[in-house]
């Protein structure tokens, strides 16, 4: 079989090959992951919208305690968000994880018990916060009782990428404007931030409880 000549001919003249530096190479085929993302775009925007809609009337989770159907729908949305970026590192960027996060919805019974029963103590629960300081290795869980009261649980954290935060509570106290009552610290464990963007964070903890929080428009500094 004859091989194609290295030099081509036109009108009896020999045409030299085009130098490598002037050749236009065909573009590389897209990477498999990018190609698949194009075929199956992320469901996170829709799942996020569905989640926020489903929890909007749930009074931070109080209504969900007696509505198993709504709970199942909410958990389904959380699973969809987690699946949209299953290997995302949500904890290594200290600036994104740190901050004052305000509760939108949870299944944590202890927090919901305090929120529900605050009127029995002639008060009302205000914002429920989780304040994370990654550089300082600290976490504060706060239930506010306006205008000046709060139940505060302080703790230490350790980051374990890609999504886990290990915590150990070190102090708890109930305080007012000019008084405070200490309680023995309790609890240690971990939570995984399964979804994080500029607006919300979604976590699941060692007990299987869920937490949906939004970035608060203010900073709590104790």
Task: Characterise this structure.
There is one protein chain. The protein has 222 residues and is an alpha+beta fold. It has helices at residues 32-39, 44-55, 68-84, 94-97, 109-117, and strands at 8-10, 13-15, 99-106, 128-133, 138-145, 149-160, 164-175, 180-183, 188-196, 200-205, 210-215. α2 packs antiparallel against α3. The N and C termini lie far apart (84 Å). Residues 1-12, 23-30 and 32-41 have low confidence and may be disordered.
Helical content class: 10-25%
State the low-pLDDT regions, or none.
Answer: 1-12, 23-30, 32-41
Number of helices: 5
Estimated radius of gyration: 27 Å
Q: Give the overall average pLDDT.
A: 86
Task: Give helix and strand order, one letter per element, not per position.
Answer: EEHHHHEHEEEEEEEE
Short description:
By secondary structure, the protein is α+β, with helices and mostly antiparallel strands. 23% of the residues lie in helices and 35% in strands. Strands 3-4-5-6-7-9-10-11 form an 8-stranded antiparallel β-barrel.
Give the arrangement of secondary structure elements.
Layout: E1 8-10, E2 13-15, H1 32-39, H2 44-55, H3 68-84, H4 94-97, E3 99-106, H5 109-117, E4 128-133, E5 138-145, E6 149-160, E7 164-175, E8 180-183, E9 188-196, E10 200-205, E11 210-215
Antiparallel strand pairs: 1-2, 3-4, 3-11, 4-5, 5-6, 6-7, 7-8, 7-9, 9-10, 10-11
């Amino acid at each position: 079989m004859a091989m194609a000549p290295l030099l081509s001919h036109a009108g009896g003249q020999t045409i030299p090959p085009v130098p490598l530096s002037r050749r236009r190479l065909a573009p590389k085929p897209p990477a498999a992951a990018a190609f698949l993302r194009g075929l199956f775009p992320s469901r996170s925007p829709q799942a996020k919208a569905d989640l926020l809609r489903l929890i909007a009337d749930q009074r931070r989770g109080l209504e969900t305690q007696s509505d198993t159907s709504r709970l199942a729908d909410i958990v389904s949305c959380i699973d969809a968000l987690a699946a949209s970026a299953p290997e995302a590192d949500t904890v290594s960027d200290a600036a994104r994880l740190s901050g004052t996060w305000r509760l939108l919805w949870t299944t944590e019974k202890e927090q919901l018990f305090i929120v529900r029963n605050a009127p029995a103590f002639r008060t009302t629960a205000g914002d429920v916060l989780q304040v994370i300081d990654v550089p300082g290795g600290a976490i504060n869980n706060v239930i506010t009782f306006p205008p000046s009261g709060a139940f505060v649980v302080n703790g230490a954290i350790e980051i374990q990428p890609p999504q886990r935060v290990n915590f150990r509570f070190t102090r708890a106290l109930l305080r007012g404007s000019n008084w405070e009552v200490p309680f023995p610290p309790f609890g240690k464990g971990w939570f995984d931030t399964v979804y994080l963007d500029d607006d919300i964070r979604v976590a699941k903890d060692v007990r299987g409880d869920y937490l949906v929080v939004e970035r608060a428009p203010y900073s709590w500094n104790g």
